[in-house]
């Protein structure tokens, strides 16, 4: 019997923003494994599945349980929000999967928050950009500071994941202070909360204003570069086309 774990990005949250391939694989799988919040987003659509659910910080346990169920013969879907290869489970499952040589691992891509959030704000990612997570659970803050400084100095558009939490209430303020070493406070910035979920909210402001805005783990932040402009209330970073 073929043994499979499908690592699936379910997109930002709403069913209509999940890829067709992801929905088809979830329908065919025997078991769905994931963090409770992500399971809640899809459970009504797949009520008859076996579920493996763990909490935050239990990612390694979750991946091992998924691999073990696949080893036993079940077809398993391991889900992440957004794209499983962008701050998701894809890397970890490959690292652990070396101990389960009989299990095939397949990654099914999804729409990451950088793409879905950018669409809500306009077109801020039309030129070079970078993604940086402000979570220091697995990356030292000193490393994050260096990445922010280098990205701002190079005039990248910057998209921030995990910009704040109860324990990291001032991390976005710190990040903005670093970026302001290289960018003007009038640079356009924006944020989107709960993308594709109940309570979705988007706002555009300046970088100077952004540093005073409260955010959480469900917020994605966009900071423009020196070329980013506002067009009819939308953030737009020009690609460089000649306008006739």
Report what the structure shows.
- This is Precorrin-3B C(17)-methyltransferase.
- Keywords: Cobalamin biosynthesis, Methyltransferase, S-adenosyl-L-methionine, Transferase.
- Pathway: Cofactor biosynthesis; adenosylcobalamin biosynthesis.
- It is an enzyme of class 2 (transferase).
- It comes from Megasphaera hexanoica.
- By secondary structure, the protein is α/β, with parallel strands linked by helices.
- The chain folds into two domains: 3-108, Cobalt-precorrin-4 Transmethylase, domain 1 (3-Layer(aba) Sandwich); 113-236, Tetrapyrrole methylase, C-terminal domain (Methyltransferase, Cobalt-precorrin-4 Transmethylase, Domain 2, 2-Layer Sandwich), CATH 3.30.950.10.
- 30% of the residues lie in helices and 26% in strands.
- It contains eight helices and 13 strands.
- The chain has helices at residues 20-28, 36-42, 59-71, 90-97, 113-121, 141-153, 171-179, 207-210, and strands at 3-9, 31-35, 50-54, 75-80, 103-108, 122-123, 129-133, 157-161, 188-193, 201-206, 219-223, 229-231, 234-236.
- The strands form three sheets. Strands 3-2-4-1-5 form a five-stranded parallel β-sheet, with helices on both faces. Strands 7-8-11-9-10 form a five-stranded mixed β-sheet, sandwiched between helices. It has a three-stranded mixed β-sheet with strand order 6-13-12.
- Helix 3 packs across helix 4 (90-97).
- The longest helix is centred in the N-terminal third of the chain and has 13 residues, at 59-71.
- It is elongated.
- It starts with a strand and ends in an 8-residue tail after the last strand.
- 40% of the residues are buried.
């Amino acid at each position: 019997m073929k043994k499979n774990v499908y690592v699936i990005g379910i997109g930002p949250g709403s069913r209509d923003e999940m890829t067709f391939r992801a929905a088809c694989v979830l329908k065919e799988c025997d078991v769905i494994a994931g963090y409770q919040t992500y399971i809640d987003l899809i459970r009504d659509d797949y009520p008859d599945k076996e579920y493996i659910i763990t909490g935050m910080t239990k990612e390694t346990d979750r991946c091992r349980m998924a691999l073990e169920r696949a080893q036993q013969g079940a077809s398993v879907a391991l889900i992440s929000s957004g794209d499983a290869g962008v701050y998701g489970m894809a890397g970890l499952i490959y690292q652990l999967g070396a101990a389960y040589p009989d299990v095939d691992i397949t990654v099914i891509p999804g729409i990451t928050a950088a793409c879905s959030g950018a669409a809500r704000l306009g077109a801020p990612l039309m030129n070079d950009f970078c993604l940086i997570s402000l979570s220091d659970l697995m990356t030292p803050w000193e490393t994050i500071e260096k990445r922010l400084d280098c990205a701002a100095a190079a005039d990248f558009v910057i998209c921030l994941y995990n910009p704040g939490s109860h324990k990291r209430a001032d991390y976005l303020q710190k990040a903005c202070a670093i970026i302001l070493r290289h960018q003007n406070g009038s640079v356009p910035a924006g944020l989107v909360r709960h993308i594709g979920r109940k309570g979705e909210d988007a706002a555009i402001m300046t970088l100077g204003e952004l540093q005073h805005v409260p955010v959480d783990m469900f917020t994605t932040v966009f900071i423009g570069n020196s070329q980013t402009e506002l067009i009819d209330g939308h953030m737009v970073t020009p690609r460089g086309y000649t306008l006739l």
